[in-house]
From TrEMBL, chain A:
PROSITE patterns: 2FE2S_FER_2
GO molecular function: 2 iron, 2 sulfur cluster binding; metal ion binding; oxidoreductase activity
UniProt superkingdom: Bacteria
InterPro entries membership: 2Fe-2S-bd, 2Fe-2S-bd_dom_sf, 2Fe-2S_ferredoxin-like_sf, 2Fe-2S_ferredoxin-type, Beta-grasp_dom_sf, Diverse_Oxidoreductases
Lineage, opening ranks: Bacteria, Bacillati, Actinomycetota, Actinomycetes, Kitasatosporales
PANTHER family assigned to the protein according to its UniProt record, in alphabetical order: OXIDOREDUCTASE WITH IRON-SULFUR SUBUNIT
Coiled coil (residue ranges): none
Protein name, per record: Carbon monoxyde dehydrogenase small subunit
UniProt xrefs under Pfam families: Fer2, Fer2_2
Occurrences of domain 2Fe-2S ferredoxin-type (ranges): 1-77
Pathway assignment: Alkaloid degradation; nicotine degradation
Native organism: Streptomyces fructofermentans
UniProtKB/TrEMBL annotation, chain B:
Residue ranges constituting the FAD-binding PCMH-type domain according to the UniProt record: 2-178
Signal peptide segment: none
One GO MF term attached to the UniProt entry: oxidoreductase activity
InterPro entries, alphabetized: CO_DH_flav_C, CO_DH_flav_C_dom_sf, Diverse_Substr_Oxidored, FAD-bd_PCMH, FAD-bd_PCMH-like_sf, FAD-bd_PCMH_sub1, FAD-bd_PCMH_sub2, Mopterin_DH_FAD-bd
Record keywords: FAD, Flavoprotein, Oxidoreductase
Species for this entry: Streptomyces fructofermentans
Organism lineage string: Bacteria, Bacillati, Actinomycetota, Actinomycetes, Kitasatosporales
One Pfam match: FAD_binding_5
Protein name, entry field: Carbon monoxide dehydrogenase medium subunit
């Protein structure tokens, strides 16, 4: 059947079988291979993408079920050359080693900060609890997301100060 | 790569249309909501529906409303919405206890209460929770709606009272004064299915237990409403001796099997111990809500 899914802000139309999984649609049809594909059983969480802003495991969502919805993948995190603060945080705090879980981890981090700009360590750990990382022991992933939260708070303060200054 | 066998896909735009599609396709059709039980089973060829009827657009089934003395929860209500609902937490702390340990956040973003109950897996947490709460299921079909108790809803592993051409549309949970409830689960790792779990709901009336409900998960079929424990508790004053006896009866009245999650003996031990712990917490919570209401 013919479906249109809004992926990273752009409507993408393809002919798919109903049994086609969202992760395959993104990787094979749209060649957005930043979304990784792991256990295929909704356990490992490496295939996490944002569906209408919330993390979902794309190996357990049919592409046809995503029709008419907004999907955001890791390819959409950076704005041109400017990295998202979450991506920068993973660099600053060494949040990855092999990188397999990283796209899903960063998207979950992004979704968390969009809802809760100042999460506690426990809230970060809870948010990423559906995604496995075999390299970092999670500590550096938590620190990466904390770095991004602090950076965004600082940037917001700087912007507010600038606005106030220009009004004075 | 695991891919389901071929099927046709229909997206319902109203409950009536979903019912019409279910009638038209009969036995070969399955409703899909979150899909986090059904799709893995289809990948493994444990389920092979010819038609999937997607109900994710039916927002009229996504609601949590207090109506009179019951909370009405639409079948399409996601786990996440239950966990984030203040009224669910206030009236039924057992639901929040369970939701915190059901799968993980991305799965809870998709999975629904209706899907959990209709899957009717004896290891599934919300079935035991709804059993303990004496919830009722609203099933709609061409002839209109019927309301069944959880005991009648669950007819066996993976079997429910929902007939061909019907669908679960709502779950109704009685809100009782002086109520307390709790869920206790042991899992091998975060987000896993239970090795065993116990849910207890009750009220305290003049110091005695009433309206008791006990539901166990992952210890065999038929444990979603343990009448023997409920009968023992109703009319009794809470005491450690009562909890001890309730645990013993729960342990004796379930039928766990040895598998990769644990031995039959271990699960029986857990059924008893978790019943005692859930009972203790449910009584403490009921005492607090009685004090608040006074």
């Amino acid at each position: 059947m013919r479906i249109t899914v809004n992926v990273n802000g752009e409507d993408r139309t393809r002919e798919v079988e109903p049994r086609h999984l969202l992760v395959r649609f993104l990787r094979d049809d749209l060649e957005l291979t930043g979304t990784h594909w792991g256990c295929d059983t909704s356990n490992c969480g490496t295939c996490v993408v944002l569906m209408d802003g919330e993390p979902v495991k794309s190996c357990t969502v049919l592409a046809v079920m995503a029709a008419g919805h907004e999907i955001r993948t890791v390819e959409d995190l950076a704005d041109g050359e400017r990295l998202d603060p979450v991506q920068q945080g993973f660099i600053e705090r060494h949040g990855l080693q092999c990188g397999f879980c990283t796209p899903g981890m960063m998207l979950t981090g992004r979704a968390l900060l969009d809802r809760n700009p100042d999460p506690s360590e426990q809230e970060i750990r809870e948010a990423i609890s559906g995604q496995l990382c075999r390299c970092t022991g999670y500590l550096n992933i938590v620190r990466s997301i904390q770095w991004a939260a602090r950076k965004e708070a600082e940037d917001a303060r700087a912007e507010a100060a600038e606005t106030a200054g220009s009004q004075a | 790569m695991q891919v389901p066998a071929s099927f046709d896909y229909e997206r319902a735009r109203s409950v009536d249309e979903a019912l019409e599609l279910l009638r038209r396709h009969g036995e070969e059709a399955r409703v899909v909501a979150g899909g986090h039980s059904l799709l893995p089973m289809m990948k493994l060829r444990l389920a092979g529906p010819e038609v999937l009827i997607d109900i994710n657009d039916l927002t009229e089934l996504d609601h949590i409303d207090l109506v009179g003395d019951e909370l009405r929860v639409g079948a399409l209500t996601r786990h996440r919405a239950l966990l984030e609902s203040e009224s669910v937490g206030r009236y039924f702390p057992i639901v929040h206890d369970a939701e915190r340990v059901i799968a993980d956040p991305p799965v809870r973003n998709r999975g629904t209460i209706g899907g959990s109950l209709c899957q009717a897996d004896p290891s599934e947490d919300l079935s035991a929770v709804c059993g303990a709460l004496h919830a009722r299921a609203v099933i709609r079909g061409a002839e209109g709606e019927r309301v069944v108790s959880m005991a009648d809803f669950h007819q066996g592993p993976y079997e429910t009272a929902v007939g061909v051409g019907e669908m679960l549309v709502e779950v109704r949970i009685p809100v009782l004064p002086g109520a307390g409830s709790a869920y206790e689960k042991v899992e091998r790792k975060a987000g896993d299915w239970a090795v065993a779990a116990a849910g207890v709901a009750l009220t305290l009336r003049e110091g005695r237990i009433a309206d008791a409900g006990v539901g166990l998960a992952a210890v065999g079929a038929g444990a979603l409403n343990l009448h023997a424990v409920q009968t023992l508790m109703n009319g009794s004053e809470p005491s450690e001796a009562l909890y001890e006896e309730a645990g013993r009866v729960a342990s004796a009245n379930c039928s766990p099997v040895t598998d990769s999650r644990g031995s039959e003996d271990y699960k029986r031990h857990l059924a008893g111990e978790l019943t005692r712990r859930a009972l203790r917490r449910a009584v403490a919570r009921a005492a607090r809500s009685t004090a608040r209401e006074a």
